[in-house]
Amino acid sequence: MADRSAAGRRGAPASLRFEEMTRTERVRAALGGEPVDRLPVCFWRHFKPEGSGRRLADASLRFFDETFDLDLVKLMPDIPYPFPRGGIREPGDWRLLEPIDRERSRFFAQRVEAVSVLRDELGFDTPVIVTIYGPLTEALAFAGRDRFLAHALEASPLVHEGLSVIAENLRAHIRDVMAAGADGVFLALQGCSADVMPAAQYRELGRPYDLLALQGAADGWLNVLHLHGERDLLLDQVLDYPVQALSWSDRRSGAGLRDVHGVTTKCLMGGWDEAGVITTGPASAILAEAQDAVRQTRGRRLILAPGCSVPDDTDERWLHAAREAADQVDLDA
């Protein structure tokens, strides 16, 4: 396990305005809009550990804790939902979706195992959240966008039945990962964009099932809602979701941190373009983008992060530069 003492923390500022916080204290303060010793920071990529909960936990520890000293561990969705992508072709196929046996499904058991390992290794000074794809996101993967939308028109009851089954399975799974020690979930939504469907249709096919799944994390203090996509995001449809933080591609979607900071009291996760300087450098540009995020939010209710996962082959020197930027950024600028 990495040394998380003040002496052992890599790149700590030469002087602090007040006593150094633990990771959990820092993130909690950011959520509440309170002063922090420095900005909490996180970035993430996929690990693809061949379906093992223990290997996923070990890869997460190496990346988030030992290599980059990040302020939260975000368990990645690299153990997929147990239904084949592209497995729904006819309207009647939505009936193939069934309640999942949580004792037998590796989707449940191995991700719960990963959370348990992380909590044992990290204690409670580091937040742990679990990435969950929303019910509509899973449904779009099972059928494909065009087929899903066609079925939603011609066989609406069957589609709703399928979405309900997915949402109930996810609610149960989320309860299990919370019981294993997670502090919340990172609920990733695809389809919450006018580029995929109009707002009225999302209110019918997305929102009710998102909220049903989120019931499993009702006791979480660090639930994050992530909107995936680069244009026409339906942010106004989800601002009232019961989460503490919002994540989206603020540098690529046309909705910047300043825009959203002005319409919600939720904490925002963002500041870096996930396909921009954080992947190419130089370090000065990475710091400049972080400093701009502070200007947009006045450094309050902000977790410094990219708008989505960084490419798996990103040169680690730029990720180290991003971590160092969190120490260097001027919160009073």
Automatic annotation (TrEMBL):
InterPro entries: Methanogen_methyltrans, UROD/MetE-like_sf, Uroporphyrinogen_deCOase
A Gene Ontology biological process term: porphyrin-containing compound biosynthetic process
Domain of life: Bacteria
GO molecular function: uroporphyrinogen decarboxylase activity
Protein name stated in the entry: Uroporphyrinogen decarboxylase (URO-D)
Domain Uroporphyrinogen decarboxylase (URO-D), chain residue ranges per copy: 82-327
Any Pfam family matching the protein: URO-D
